[in-house]
Amino acid sequence: MQIHVRVNGPLSRSLGRARLTVEIAPNATIGDLVNHLRVQYPEITNALNYAVPVLAGSHCTAATHLVEGQEVALLMPVAGG
To answer: Count of CB atoms within 10 A of residue 73's CB?
Structure first.
């Protein structure tokens, strides 16, 4: 199934773009998606350790199941005050 991925910060800089479309297995989870990205884009492996997955405006866990065509944001936390 196709999943749309939006990234920011170091992830987008390393990839050279802010959006990806990824083909993963049906019934995949956020964790499966992140593991797929680690394999496809080894240059972002370290940054993925800190990315916060957001689905439909809400934080989600690695166990959250995905549905065909969904957009997942993998957002990097920003420090400051």
So the answer is: 20
